[in-house]
Amino acid sequence: MLRVHHLNNSRSQRVLWLLEELALSYEIKHYSRDPKTGHAPPSLKLIHPLGRAPVLQDGDITVAETGAIIDYITRTYGVGRLIPPPGGKAYNDYIHFLHFGEGSAILPQLLALYTSFLGDASAPLQPIINREMKKNFDYIEYHLTRREYFAGEQLSGADIQMVFPLEAAKTHGRLVKYPACLDFVERMHARPAYLKALKRGGHYDYGPKV
Ligand SMILES: N[C@@H](CCC(=O)N[C@@H](CS)C(=O)NCC(=O)O)C(=O)O
């Protein structure tokens, strides 16, 4: 049985969504953030040394990092679903956005969060952070005005990976000038599998209010 180590109100919501899209059976081990620090409890370190969520366990196999988990699940259990046929443009886009989500799209948003703890001392960094954020959103908007999903005309693991940076941006009012990004988030939030995962995962500030 697949087991997802899931932290409340976190990126690991995506893994639940993926499993629901594929209609796979899985169990969830729930972890709660420390109410003061927001950190995961130390018990998560017993599952993986990074102590971050998500972590997937499949028998004696343990996988951390959302992109690697999406790749593992679709490759092992997807039977061709949610991955475009290898070799074509859609497949290259799929791989690109599977990496881009956590490798590039989230970075300036994390920097905005971390530097917010510095107050005025962070002022010199803000133009750089804003510039990098804009670069990302302009690029994503350009892509999504030309196709329905990140890897062409069908849902793939890349959409599941990319939803979190866009949800986080939307929550902080950063997508006002990006209608295609907003439309994408709305479409993903309307998917029955997304809503089912939301119910199973519990508290999540970045999803639709249900
Ligand atoms: N790039 C990693 C990020 C993992 C990550 O930072 N997870 C956060 C939840 S959004 C976490 O576990 N934070 C709690 C902590 O670091 O203590 C992924 O996508 O899996």
Structural commentary:
The protein has eight helices and four strands, in the order βαβββααααααα. The protein is α+β, with helices and mostly antiparallel strands and 210 residues long. Strands 2-1-3-4 form a four-stranded mixed β-sheet, covered by helices on one side. Helix 1 links the parallel strand 1 and strand 2. Helix 3 packs parallel to helix 6. The longest helix has 19 residues. The mean pLDDT is 97. The protein binds glutathione. Glutathione binds next to loops. The site of glutathione has 12 residues, from loops.
Question: What brief labels describe this structure?
Answer:
210 residues; alpha+beta; Glutaredoxin; Glutathione S-transferase Yfyf (Class Pi), Chain A, domain 2; 2 domains; four-stranded mixed sheet; 49% helix; 10% strand; globular; binds glutathione
Quick recap:
This protein has helices at 13-21, 66-77, 89-105, 107-116, 126-144, 157-171, 179-189, 192-201, and strands at 2-7, 26-31, 55-58, 61-64. It has 210 residues and is α+β, with helices and mostly antiparallel strands.
